[in-house]
Write a structure and sequence with these properties.
The protein is of the alpha+beta class and about 250 residues long. The chain contains 6 helices and 12 strands. It has helices at about 20-40, 45-50, 60-75, 95-110, 195-205, 210-220; strands at about 1-5, 10-15, 85, 90, 115-120, 125, 135-140, 145-155, 160-165, 185-190, 225-230, 235. The chain has an 8-stranded antiparallel beta sheet. A two-stranded antiparallel sheet has the order 3-4. Strands 7-8 form a two-stranded antiparallel sheet.
């Protein structure tokens, strides 16, 4: 069963190869809606909007406390390049999307399902095999021509996240120098053990500019593919192990 809905301002697709009831797949989309209601900075009644208006920490929900803790941890682990504070506001979107996809995947797993694919705005989590009984293959788009796939990669119970400025424009900044907006990178894709880990690290690495690919190289269990503004691609040492080959 495959279904797509627009939630969190982006298309979200859930594909389950195993037998699943429509009501169960709907639970996954209901979860994404609950995340959007809580963390959308565009909704004035969302909890994150209330936090930005001064909601006391003691009144935060358990999910808000968890996300804030994970954001603080990620900031520490990335030497400050992952920073959710910008112009006096807090926006944890750079972590929430991957975290939500990962949690949604766990909902399917807890239902006893083993073969599925979840994508939200280009960030992906896969488990098991696709409808053809093969590993899931996902594409990385050419940021200069989004109709073209520049690399197809094979994922095994993993996640992949992409950061770029070719759809939403410049929205990821160097937190160490807010005047640094020269846009060195066009896109950066990271493969990790799950989409939550890939998403939080790709956000930080993109903010680092061209040196971000070396940060990904330093992380055990992660691989990356970077395209800069000069249309030059740089990849980590073992990224090629994931690239699908054609006969």
């Amino acid at each position: 069963m495959k279904k797509t809905e627009i939630i969190m301002g982006m298309p979200i697709t859930v594909e389950v190869v195993d037998k699943i009831k429509p009501s169960d797949i709907d639970k996954v989309f209901d979860y994404f809606r609950s995340v959007d209601d809580r963390f959308s900075t565009y909704k004035k009644d969302s909890e994150i909007s209330k936090v930005n208006r001064g909601l006391a920490e003691k009144d935060w929900s358990g999910e808000m406390k968890e996300v804030m803790r994970l954001c603080d941890l990620t900031k520490e682990q990335t030497n400050g390049y992952f920073d959710i504070e910008h112009e006096g506001k807090i926006d944890p979107s750079g972590l929430v999307k991957g975290w939500a996809i990962y949690n949604a995947a766990n909902l399917l797993r807890d239902m006893g399902l083993k073969n599925y694919y979840i994508e939200a705005g280009g960030d992906i989590e896969v488990s098991g095999l696709n409808q053809s009984g093969q590993p899931w293959t996902v594409g990385i788009r050419n940021p200069f021509n989004t109709a073209e796939i520049v690399k197809a990669v094979i994922l095994h119970d993993q996640g992949m996240a992409t950061s770029g400025n070719y759809i939403r424009g410049e929205h990821i900044y160097n937190p160490k120098d807010e005047n640094d907006k020269d846009g060195e990178l066009r896109s950066l894709s990271v493969i990790g053990p799950n989409v939550y880990e890939a998403d939080r690290y790709v956000t930080a690495a993109f903010a680092m500019g061209k040196k971000g690919i070396y940060f990904i190289e330093s992380l055990e269990g992660f691989e990356g593919y970077m395209i800069d503004n000069n249309k030059t691609a740089t990849l980590t040492t073992r990224f090629g192990d994931y690239v699908a080959t054609t006969a």
